[in-house]
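Batch queue: ligand-bound targets. Current item pairs a single chain with pyridoxal-5'-phosphate. No template structures supplied; prediction is de novo from sequence plus SMILES. Inputs echoed for audit trail.
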Amino acid sequence: MQLSNFPVTLVEHSRLSQVNFDELSFGGVFSDHMFSMVYEEGAWKNPKIHPYQALALEPGVAMLHYGQTVFDGFKAFRGLDGEVRIFRPDMNARRLHDSCQRLCIPIMTLDELSEIMIHATQQLIKLDHGWMPSQWGHSLYVRPLVIGTEATLEVRAANSYRFMIMTAPVGSYFTNLQKGVSLRVEDRFTRAASIGGLGAAKTAANYAASLLPGSESQQQGFDQVLWLDGNEHRYVEEVGAMNIFFKIGDTVVTPPLGGSILPGVVRDSALTLLADWGIVVEERRISIDEVLAAFRSGTLVEVFGAGTAAVICPVASIGFKGEVFQVATAPPGELTLRLYDELTGIQYGKLEDRHGWNVHVEIPG
Ligand SMILES: Cc1ncc(COP(=O)(O)O)c(C=O)c1O
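Prediction returned. Tokens below.
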């Protein structure tokens, strides 16, 4: 694959002047340009950058019926020093590669995918650098997407695909670190099967499964769903679109990756920082009964979610079977805030990037 700049078709009229950067929602507006390439006759080809535009797809495209689609999500940040940094895109390439394999999408090698994804993202950001927010907490969200494009109603893997990358300026997902979020434990519906399902893949079906419980949680006054395992509805899995951490006494506990949980990039980053700081972490199954017992004994000092959208998000309370439990420490807890500050400090170039997580983008002067 030739990795010099991809061919570019520029927009005739930029939409940038219509964007209100003070009122950004999450993915409500997309930047002027996008990247795409196709898979046809057994090969990935025709990589290019062109205006963000509607897709022409037949209604009989199997992906629309059977869900053979995967995506990922990561962010680029404009630092206080004016530099633009992309946070750990190699991890997202790896996850997208794994997601493709699980959904039977004939993806290129991991090295090729990683190179193309990072290179295309850098080229898109250079081209659309005016879309890159500069306010603290704001960022440019990058959304790669792979869809099957073959029109057939046969239930099988498609023989043609489109790989796209779009970008969107976004505000901070949860603005109130002091308030934290409230969770409702979901003990009826399941996000993903415990064994052998799609939980570790970033694919549409998992998000479709989350919509009804998410809407029920909001109707009952909670912000997000706390998912339990799909087998016994007993062990905590993850929360909304984040991985979950509990600080019980001096130990941090987070559920292990076992195929049903999305392997979060921020989860991995948090685990690395916690290890750096010498904090005891247990990656192990934790039952909702154990969480409630820790609430009752006052040893559950902090709960937080970790994910690209919110980075680190304090949890204030958890509702289960009609009872609401308040976390002992008012948000944000000390460790929650330390992780939030360290991660955002690295992302915005305020703190040293000791692990080499950031990928720089040279913005034309
Ligand atoms: C279901 C789910 N779990 C966890 C995460 C956190 O993953 P990451 O840290 O890579 O954003 C996300 C967000 O992508 C998610 O959608």
